[in-house]
Predict the structure.
Amino acid sequence: MSLVTCIDVGSTFTKAALVDVASGVLVATAAHPTTIATDVMDGVDAVCRELATAGGATSGGATGERLVCSSAGGGLRLAVVGYEREVTAEAGRRVGLSAGGKVVHVAAGALGGAEIRALRGASPDLVLLVGGTDGGNAEVLRHNAARLAAARITPPIVVAGNVEVADEVASLLASTGRRFTVTANVVPRIGQIAPDGARGAIREAFLTHVIGGKGLSRGRGFAELVRAATPDAVLQGVEVLAEVVGGDVLVIDIGGATTDVYSVITPQGEDASLHRDVVAPLWHARTVEADLGMRWNAATIVEAAARERLPLTPSTVAYAAEVSADTGHLASSPHEWAGEQELASAAAVLAVRRHGRSAHPSERPRPLAEVSVVLGSGGVLRHSPPEVSAAVLAAVTGDHGGGWRVPDRARVGVDSSYVLFVVGLLSQVHPSAARALAGSLARG
């Protein structure tokens, strides 16, 4: 066997999978609490030792080639600075999410002192500077570049705005020694969004500047091992899955703090031919709902469900308060699993509604009706009784209150072995193994 170890260093747990890349077969998995308090490489070494004896694997296989993604230390905290809130700033926010960032701040228009202070207060790891279509407004981009060059901020900057002033912006940032990368405009023209250049530049800045700067490891090679932010790796895995199944894919990842939704859509008909929206849809997309988490934000699931008129039983409301106070609690009784099911169903439905809804009344909702595969992920779905995970996903595919047709004919399943991040990591260096693993996931 030709074995590769894929590792996700999360904020709470470090998960690992051993894959035979010759066949694309998942050999074994392991997990260990992330060792933030000491050195994250302690947890990485622990899962590798466990995999070394699992499934007949040799220690050489488990400790040989390693592919790592990470969301430890809060993941990638991204600030977006744009021209108009509803155009370039919104496009930058969408692109930042698709690149695996947690968007902690969005500024629109010409930066002043108050805006610089707010940006600094958000403590971003990286700033995405956008503004103007190609050949369009350039003054705001110039102004903001000058303010960022002079401000007391240290994060690297990715410039993805009006290409006609890219050289001037680069000179402004270089004049004060800022770390920056210039890439293609995320909004080259109204109604078009071009994410690839910015996604790649954000990924490279994350690997080059951010991972090593978080102090997660004391010089033991962690920064050299990490290849992507975890959400970026997962989206790459979803893209491979969509390619393998030959159709649209929707993934709902219900976590302890957030619920993330990923979709890969091939637009059809009017969606494919028209660019009437001010900011065109991002067909390979991720959204993050920071108020929908099964532990840290269980209480706000209750609040959000009430706003959307999704009824929760009094016992579930009480259970949400209990797990919010004890975030390490694990469900063990039928009563607790009933609470988990209701909370997870509400989180999933709310997150998919937000993912699918248009940003503005004039825009079309995200076309989810033809999704071929709906896949659930997250601890509550991976570790719950089968009837619980089935009910949670059925709540999504049977929800008719979001304002659009739901994917009611989709194949539904759970990423029970947590391999989407593995598929994403493998896709760049072992593409055939990634496709084979995605195929096994699609078949259930």
In short: The first helix runs from residue 40 to 52. The first strand starts at residue 3 and ends at 9. DSSP finds 17 helices and 15 strands in the chain.
